[in-house]
Amino acid sequence: MNVHHTTQIQLLQVRMDKPVCFIDTDSAGKLRVQQSALKILEQIQQPVVVVAVVGLYRTGKSHLMNRLAGKQTGFALGSTTESKTKGIWMWCVSHPTKAGTTLVLLDTEGLGDVDKGDPKHDTNIFSLAVLLSSTLVYNSRGTIDNKAVMELQYVTELSECIKVKSSDEDADDSSEFVKFFPSFIWAVRDFTLELKIDGKDVTEDEYLDFALKLKHGTSRSVIEYNFPRECIQRFFPSRKCFTFPFPTAPENMSRLGSLDSADISSEFLKVTDHFCQFVFHDSCVKRLKDGHTVTGRVLGHLAKTYVDTISSGAVPCLENAVIAMATIENKAAVKEGLQVYQSEMEKLKDSFPLELKDVFSEHQHLSSTATQAFMKRSFKDTDGKYLKSLEEKIIKLFDEHLCQNEHASKKRCEEILSSLSAPMMVKLKKGFYAKPGGYDLFCKDLEDIVNKYNSQAKKEVKAEEILEEFLKQKSVDSKAILQADKKLTEKEKKIKEEKEKAALLEQEIKAREEKLRQLEEKMEAVRQSNEERMRQMKEKMDEEMRLQREETERAMNRKLREQADLLQKSFKEEADVMRQEMEEFKRQNTESNRAGELVAILENSSRRHEEEVATMMQQRSVQMMAIQQMIVRSEAEINRAREFAAIVENSSRRHEELMAMMMQQYRANMMAVHSSNGCRTM
After folding, report:
1. Structural contact between residues 167 and 173, judged by C-beta atoms closer than 8 angstroms
2. Fewer beta carbons below 10 Å: N end or C end of the chain?
3. Cα(473)–Cα(480) distance, rounded to whole angstroms?
């Protein structure tokens, strides 16, 4: 498909040799998205895996991101006490293990920089990293002790900085974060401790779980201790930990990006490689609420929506962002689907005129392809509004191309008749038919033209209609020749005139019947296109419902594990809260109205199809009535011609009988005269 080919070309053009600034602040200190970064993302129509790194400034975040990009340098590495990275920087590279996917790396400004004026700036940067990523890497130094956990205070503020639903702004819907938040990796840099708990060797993940272990009690200090740990456990669907030793000697840290591998600790390189491989294989494609896959283009729209919301002083809402994305993407999906149909139909025009079945066949194929292109890009078209728009635009284009095909067919038919009737026109100009017997000669030539035309134009859409017009035009010449033909009597002329009227009416009926047949073919093509559209729509809705179920199941499984862990550690109250959240997930999943939406969309589309068919059936009925009326007229004309012929025949027979009687009387009189003369002579 051409759209796919175009996409490949666009993707090949996205070659980023170095990162670019994605989000920064304007002169007033408000966040903004860089247009140059949006233009890059706009070209990426592949799904994206988005990995964002956050952490305190001067903890070596940028080095990890460079390694994920497969480069030694790229993101700026600072060697001073101030944050080197400002805002959020972006680097898009081909995913090393997932074909057809782009890896988007986001390096964020270091948190906790004392030079920042806005106390909310760090929280906003952290919130954007969470909202935009599918994997969030939190980078810290030393150990995961209480101080390190408390420095991750931004997690505790997420419930105030991010909303899932727009229906109730004051409600706490943070229990649903686990459905949409990224997976969480804690990268501990310059780790020097042994991985042991109570003298037993533990894994890095067990070390993280131990650091996030809750305390029993209800005192203020216990609540403050538990709160950030509960947030991390509740909000993020999965957690992973990597502990990195010192990469090199302290005096070499300022030039870490330019060091040879021999100058870097082999253990550090080993952990870094393990970290990169985990991110490559386990980081998922970014998805929106309800499971819609995010492309580079959608990621750009998301970033713009979230940043604009934060800059306005409002709280970013996942539901509102999805609605905004749906509007943008669905409009673009209609345009894309229509472009697929229009570009290929324009190519078909070069072959006009074509048989109607060929045009219908191509229409059905392109309509299906256009719907596929639409379905691929659209999402949450809950009332079928945008699919209906595409359908209406395609039908309009289809009718236009049918008219253009008819025009081309008309032109060709006229050219055929013009060529075939040229000798006749010469004879007419020379007066060839203006003689006794000329009418029969004219009729013979006209019959030859019609036979040859039917042979050459039998597959043309307008064949019968143009022939009808041609015969009507020639009937003027025919009447003139008939009236001037002295070989024919007035009665014979009358008979031939009636027969000619019947022949013209018969051709008119054939033209109407051909139109009726074409209308019925169009109705069948529309029916088949509608069935295919409904099939694709159902597949799309089934896929969306499947993703929604999987989204809920993942969150449920995660909460079940947490509940079991809490019960095991005797945190019954917290486990009961978790149980209530799971019950709410179940209720939401049960009450999901996607099935109802599917039924409504199918019913609306079916109703539109029925209305369209009803319109065509009405046209068919009108044409059928017209044909029946013409048949009645034709039969009446033929009957009149027959009656007239019978009258003429009867009149002729009576005339002959009268003449015979007169001749018999004449002979008898003559015999009587001869007999009288003979008697006188004697």
Report:
1. no
2. C
3. 12
User: Residue 227, SS3?
Assistant: helix
- Using alpha carbons, select from 593, 587, 533 the residue that is nearest to residue 380: 593
Cα–Cα distance measured from residue 620 to residue 618, given in angstroms and rounded to the nearest whole number: 5
Share of the chain above pLDDT 70, in %: 73
Per-residue CA distances from 267 to 246, 247, 264, 536, 653 (Å): 9, 8, 9, 52, 126
Alpha helices, DSSP H, located in 24-155: 35-43, 61-68, 121-132, 146-151
Cross-strand bridge partners of residue 90 = 20, 106
CB-CB contact of 353 with 404 (8 Å): no
Task: Please give the Cα distance from 294 to 657 (Å, whole number).
Answer: 100
Strand 239-243 and strand 200-201: the pairing is: unpaired
Burial class (CB in 10 A: 0-12, 13-18, 19+), 127: buried
Task: Report pLDDT digits (tens) over 257-314.
Answer: 556 666 788 898 999 999 999 999 999 999 987 778 899 999 999 999 999 999 999 9
Given the structure tokens 């929280």, which residue do they identify?
123
List, for residues 34-61, the tens digit of each pLDDT value. Answer: 999 999 999 998 999 999 999 887 657 8
Alpha helix (H) residue ranges in 569-593:
572-590
Report how far residue 131's alpha carbon sits from residue 128's, in angstroms, rounded to the nearest whole number. 5
Q: Is 200 helix (H, G, I), strand (E, B) or coil?
A: strand
**pTM exceeds 0.90 for this model:** no
Three-class secondary structure of residue 188 per DSSP: strand
| pLDDT for 81 | 37
Beta bridge partner(s), residue 48: 102
Task: Compute CA 279 distance to the chain's CA centroid, rounded to the nearest angstrom.
Answer: 32
Please, is 133 exposed, middle or buried when counting C-beta atoms within 10 Å of its C-beta (0-12, 13-18, 19+)? buried
